[in-house]
Specification:
Helix content: 40-55%
Strand content: 15-25%
Shape: elongated
Largest sheet: 4 strands, antiparallel
Strand order of the largest sheet: 2-4-1-5
Number of strands: 6
Radius of gyration: 25 Å
């Protein structure tokens, strides 16, 4: 994986972070991500993120569950082993509604959870770089990706001027990878940036 350079700004207050995100986007910098200890209403819109497509995936999974249920029941009760249940026709759709409903909900729920975990890169065996150990505790952390045109010193002073309590630069892998977290901090530079 490619190792990129990031400027990491830590904020103590969510109101300061919210306005800082808008100012950073207006200044033309590319925000890699923002880590907060709690959800902040409207932050995704301020960051310019599009609406989630999770509900569309849930609908597709639900239709898949409905189709699976109706196909399986139809095959079993019409083609493979047709039985006469109390004089009902072989294609007795009202009697199949409970099973169809349950499989629709099951496929939709399990599919949406797995899709959410995949999109958010959450799994026990998936490892990602932590830009700040206090990001999920009491700090609001904004991570800005550096490009070839980014002047890191100007960006750091800009973040401090808009309310960042701590600003530093880190080298990190952008994606996720398989593995477990090590208890040891790999290098002195990372120790200084993580503990800052």
């Amino acid at each position: 994986m490619a190792i990129k350079r990031f400027v990491v700004g830590s904020f103590d207050d969510e109101a300061v972070l919210f306005t800082a995100v808008k100012k950073v986007r207006t200044a033309g910098y590319q925000i890699h991500d923002v880590y907060t200890p709690m959800p902040i209403h409207g932050l995704d819109h301020a960051m310019g993120l599009r609406e989630t497509s999770l509900h569309t995936a849930g609908f597709i999974y639900g239709i898949t569950g409905t189709t699976t249920a109706l196909t399986g029941i139809s095959y079993a009760l019409i083609y493979d082993w047709p039985l006469n249940f109390g004089g009902k026709p072989h294609f007795a759709l009202p009697a199949w509604i409970p099973i169809t409903f349950e499989l629709t909900v099951l496929f939709s729920a399990v599919g949406m959870v797995l899709t959410f975990c995949y999109l958010c890169q959450m799994a026990p065996f998936v490892r990602k770089h932590h830009f700040s150990l206090r990001a999920t505790d009491d700090l609001f952390v904004m991570v800005i990706e550096c490009t070839s045109k980014t002047n890191e010193v100007d960006l750091q002073s800009f973040l401090k001027s808009i309310g960042a309590a701590d600003v530093h630069t880190q080298n990190a892998e952008t994606g996720w990878w398989l593995g477990s977290y090590s208890k040891n901090i790999p290098s002195v530079d990372n120790a200084k940036t993580i503990l800052a």
